[in-house]
Design brief:
The protein has ten helices and no strands. By secondary structure, the protein is mainly alpha-helical. It is a multi-pass membrane protein.
């Protein structure tokens, strides 16, 4: 039941956060491996100016997508995004809840509890992302697809989630569905550790106050706000790397055209785009992560309370 509740909570949250996920993906891929210079005559590999960048801000991104693709463009990749959220979080939150039920996340001191929570959060994230990896790849590739000046990164020609999964399988086999796997494992391990550890710690901390004890939803909402911030700060660089690894084109042997590994992507991005490149899309990523964390973990806690009332736990 804990596994099912975790997946349902994440799916509910994913519907509301997907537009920011689309914007985040576009910003992370715009100007990929282009140096941040003024574009003086004689220079190469220079980024476009903010005025010519259709994704230079969240507001401009919204306008660009609405202008080029309409309202439905903001929910691009929704099916694969929700499939990813359900598959990943049913496993991730289910494992973490099981660890909490067995008190494996509890240490002899607050510091020990935090470390155990980080460890179980990371482990559950790794297992969850392993299961859901193909959906994340398809989601990224569909969200990146546009046309003309609005196109960013490599343009895959998927017509839908099922068509993408079957097409990749026919062309690359089962290994093709897990291409870029190290990127999402790193991303999710860091993000899950930060999210679940800070959420559990903040819930315990806020639980000392009467306003939090009176309402499960209020306590979960407050803990989620703090958790979302820390998750975004720690996870954003790895999120950029995962997006680029999954979206890059491949050669005839199935090898990436731009990056060989997580370390290679990290090094090339840092060298050509600087630290800014590793935090591209930070603002929409926060507006995706914070509401998603709030909705996901609040739904999760509320679903568990309803389950306990129904079954009389």
């Amino acid at each position: 039941m804990d596994f099912l509740l975790g997946g349902c909570a994440a799916t509910c949250a994913g519907f509301f956060s997907n537009p920011f996920d689309v914007i985040k993906t576009r910003q992370q891929l715009h100007g990929e491996l282009l140096q941040r210079t003024s574009g003086a005559p004689g220079t190469t590999n220079t980024t476009t100016t903010p005025a010519s960048n259709p994704y230079s801000s969240v507001v401009r991104s919204f306008r660009s997508i609405l202008r080029s693709e309409g309202v439905l463009g903001l929910q691009k990749g929704l099916v694969s995004a929700l499939a990813f959220q359900f598959a990943m979080n049913s496993v991730r939150l289910g494992i973490y809840q099981t660890a909490e039920n067995c008190e494996w996340t509890r240490g002899a001191s607050p510091a020990g509890t935090l470390l155990r929570s980080i460890g179980w959060g990371g482990l559950s994230g790794v297992i969850g992302s392993t299961v859901a990896c193909p959906f994340y790849m398809v989601k990224t590739q569909i969200q990146a697809r546009s046309h003309g000046k609005y196109a960013v990164g490599y343009q895959h020609r998927h017509t839908g989630t099922l068509a993408a999964l079957t097409g990749i399988y026919r062309e690359r086999g089962i290994r093709g569905l897990w291409r870029g796997y190290p990127g999402i494992v790193t991303r999710t391990a860091v993000g899950s550790s930060a999210q679940l550890a800070t959420f559990s710690t903040c819930k315990d901390l806020f639980g000392q106050f009467e306003w939090a004890r009176d309402s499960v939803a209020v306590n979960a909402f407050a803990a989620s706000m703090v958790s979302g911030f820390f998750t975004c700060v720690f996870m954003s660089p790895f999120d950029v790397i995962a997006t680029r690894l999954f979206n890059q084109g491949v050669d005839a042997n199935g090898r990436g055209l731009l990056y060989r590994s997580v370390a290679d992507c990290f090094t090339k991005t840092l060298r050509t785009e600087g630290l800014h490149g590793l935090y591209k899309g930070f603002v929409p990523n926060y507006w995706r992560i914070a509401p998603h964390t709030i909705l996901n973990l609040t739904f999760w806690d509320q679903f568990k309370e309803w389950r306990d009332l129904y079954y009389g736990y």
